[in-house]
Write a structure and sequence with these properties.
The structure is a homodimer. By secondary structure, chain A is α+β, with helices and mostly antiparallel strands. Chain A has 10 helices and 13 strands.
C-alpha cells in the first residue's frame, strides 16, 4: 500500500498536532536533570531501560509502577456523552503496561482533571473503571479529582497502576529473547486509546458524522471508535512465570515499534501480520495516511505481543486459550539484526523513540 | 476577623471556579459504581477510609499509593516562565501525602500533559523534580508525557508516589488519637500548591502585578507565590515508627479540615494557632475572603500536623528538630467531641468533605 506519490498530501500524527519527536526531545531535557538516586533504605530501583513500567525492590518484594492517560479519546466520549468506555480504558492502558513486564496488578489510582466535574460523566467513568478492574483483577486504591479551570477543557482521565511479582516470578524484560523465537499477537478490540488526535482531525477535515456507521460497519462510527481497550492481564499473568516466555509488549502508542524496547540487538520480523481490520483501513484511506505512519501510530489489529520459545509454542497457545486469548496467532519471529519490520507493508523501524 | 456584614461581597473558592462540593458530589457518583474487590492473590487492600493514601498488602509488605497534581499553580509558573518550583511541587504534594500515613517514599512517577511540550519548561521541571526527590529521598521510577492538544491549555503537572513501611512499622491512620493528645504543627513555606484558582482570580480582578513585591515583602509577588511546597518526609519518617505518634496530617487542599480525616470522634481544638503569615493576610484582604473560607482553602501557615502523646512531647520535639523541623510548635490539643475548630478566628468545621 506504500505509495510515495501521495506523500505530499498524506496525513501524519505530527501534522494532526502530536509530534512525538518534539515530545521525546522535551522529555530528554527533563530526564537529564533528574540525577538523584536514593539510599538503599528507601527502596532499590531496578534498571529496566526504556521499559513499560518502573521497577523498585522494597523489602522482599519487587514492585512495578506505571502511569498513563486515556488521551484525546476522552474528547470523543465527551462529544457523544458516553463515558463508560473511557472509564474502562483508564484501567486498561495502565494494567496492560504492567502486563508487559509480567507484573500482576495490585491496585490502581485514577486522576481526573476537570474544569467543572459532571456527576453524570463521573458515574459513567465509575461504571467503566469497575468493569476494567474486574477484567484485570485489580483494586481501586484511591484517586485524585482536580478541579483545574484554565488548564483543562472538559475532562482528562489518567491513572497509575501498581503491580507485583508473585513468589518465584521475575520481571519479564526481554533480555532472554533470541533469534528463532516466535512472536505471537493477541488481537486488539479496536483502536484502543491511541492516535485519537489524528482520528479526530481527519473526521473534522472530512466532515464525517459520528452517528452513522462507516461503509461496511453495523455500529455507528462513534460506537466503533469508543470500544474500550482490551485488557491483557489474564493471558500475560498466565505466561509471565513460565520460562518459555521471553518477552511481552503492549502495542499502544508507537504500535509495533514497542517491540524494539524489549531487545536492542535482535530483529523482530513480523512476516505473518494478520489481515488489518477494516476500521484501520478506513482511517488510512480517509487521510490518506501512509503505511509506516499507520504502524507507528495505531495497533493495526494486534494489541499485545508475546515473544516465546518456539519449542513450547503448542503449550503456550493452549495456556493462552484457557486464559481468555484463544484468538492469539503467530505474527512473526526473531532474527539476528535489530529493529522491527512488517515485510508485507514494506514498513521498517530502527528504534522506539 | 469574621464579619457577617461583608458576606455578600466576600470571595470564596467556589466563586473563583472551584466548587469542592460539586467535586465531592461527582466523586461520590463515581465511587458508588466501583464495587469490585479483587481476589486475595492480587493483593489485599487495607481499609483506610478517607485517608491520604491507599494501602495494599502485597506479599510481606504493606504499600501506600497516592496521586496528586500541582493544579493551577502551573498557570502562574507558565505566565512567569519559571518551572523549577512547580517541578519540586509535584514531588512534594505526593510525598507529603505518603508522610501523612507514615509511609517512606520508594518511588515517584510523574505525568505531564501538554499541548506542545516545551524543552525549556521540561528542563526546569526536571531540575525541580530532582530537588524534590533529594529532599524526600525518593527515586523517579518513570512517567508519562501525554501530548493532548484540545484537552490541555499549557501544561498540567501531576504524579503518583509509592511508599512502604520499613520492617516493624505500621501505617499511622489516626485510630490511636485520644483526648489529651497534643497537636503539633510544622510551618509551611508559603501557599504551597493550593487555592491558586482563587489567588489568580483575585489578582486579575484587582489588576495586581506579579513582578513587584506586595507591601511589606521583599521578593516579587510572583516569586513569593511560586515558592515550592515544603517537603515533610524526613520529620514524618522520624516519628512514624514511634508509638507516641498517634496521627499525621498533610494540610493541603482543605487546610485544617484535613485533621478531621484522622478521627471522626474526637475534636481538634487549635487554640494555639501561630500568627498567620503576612502573605495569607494580604490575600484575605485582597478578596475580601472570610476567615472560614481562608482556613478551608489555604494552609494559613501550617503545612503538616502531628498528633502526639503529651507525655512524650519534649522527646518528640527533639526528634523533629534533628529531622529538619526545629520550627515545629504546639498548635492545639484533642478533646472529646468531633470536628476541628480554631477559636481565635471563630472558625469551626464538622467534617472534611
Amino acid at each position: 500500500m506504500a505509495d510515495p506519490t501521495r506523500a505530499s498530501s498524506a496525513w501524519t500524527y505530527a501534522r494532526s498536532g502530536v509530534d512525538v519527536d518534539v515530545r521525546d526531545a522535551a522529555l530528554k531535557r527533563l530526564l537529564r536533570e533528574v540525577r538523584f538516586r536514593p539510599r538503599p533504605d528507601h527502596g532499590r530501583p531496578l534498571a529496566a531501560p526504556g521499559h513499560f513500567a518502573g521497577l523498585v525492590r522494597v523489602g522482599r518484594e519487587t514492585l512495578a509502577l506505571t502511569t498513563d492517560t486515556v488521551g484525546t479519546k476522552v474528547l470523543l466520549a465527551e462529544e457523544l456523552g458516553r463515558w463508560e468506555g473511557v472509564g474502562e480504558d483508564v484501567v486498561a492502558v495502565n494494567v496492560n503496561d504492567l502486563a508487559a513486564v509480567g507484573a500482576r496488578p495490585a491496585g490502581l489510582v485514577d486522576t481526573i482533571l476537570a474544569g467543572v466535574p459532571d456527576p453524570i460523566a463521573f458515574a459513567g467513568i465509575g461504571r467503566g473503571i469497575d468493569r476494567g478492574l474486574r477484567a484485570a483483577g485489580c483494586a481501586l486504591l484511591g484517586g485524585e479529582t482536580a478541579v483545574v479551570p484554565g488548564i483543562v477543557r472538559g475532562t482528562d482521565l489518567g491513572g497509575t497502576a501498581l503491580g507485583f511479582f508473585p513468589r518465584g516470578r521475575r520481571p519479564v524484560l526481554g533480555d532472554r529473547i533470541r533469534p528463532g523465537d516466535v512472536v505471537l499477537g493477541i488481537p486488539s478490540s479496536g483502536v484502543h486509546a491511541n492516535g485519537f488526535t489524528l482520528i479526530r482531525r481527519l473526521l473534522a477535515e472530512r466532515s464525517v458524522p459520528l452517528g452513522r456507521p462507516r461503509d461496511g460497519a453495523s455500529a455507528s462510527l462513534g460506537d466503533e471508535l469508543l470500544v474500550p481497550t482490551r485488557i491483557y492481564s489474564r493471558p500475560a499473568d498466565t505466561l509471565a512465570g513460565v520460562p518459555a516466555t521471553h518477552g511481552l509488549a503492549h502495542l499502544s502508542g508507537g504500535g509495533v515499534r514497542n517491540l524494539v524496547r524489549l531487545h536492542p540487538r535482535v530483529a523482530f520480523v513480523l512476516d505473518r501480520w494478520p489481515e488489518v481490520p477494516p476500521l484501520f483501513r478506513w482511517i488510512q484511506a480517509l487521510g490518506p495516511v501512509d503505511d509506516a505512519e499507520m504502524f507507528r501510530t495505531f495497533n493495526m489489529g494486534i494489541g499485545f505481543a508475546l515473544v516465546v520459545d518456539r519449542r513450547r509454542l503448542a503449550e503456550t497457545r493452549r495456556r493462552l486459550a484457557r486464559a481468555g486469548a484463544p484468538d492469539v496467532s503467530e505474527i512473526g519471529h526473531v532474527e539476528r539484526g535489530s529493529g522491527v519490520r512488517v515485510p508485507a507493508f514494506d514498513v521498517e523501524f530502527s528504534g522506539y523513540a
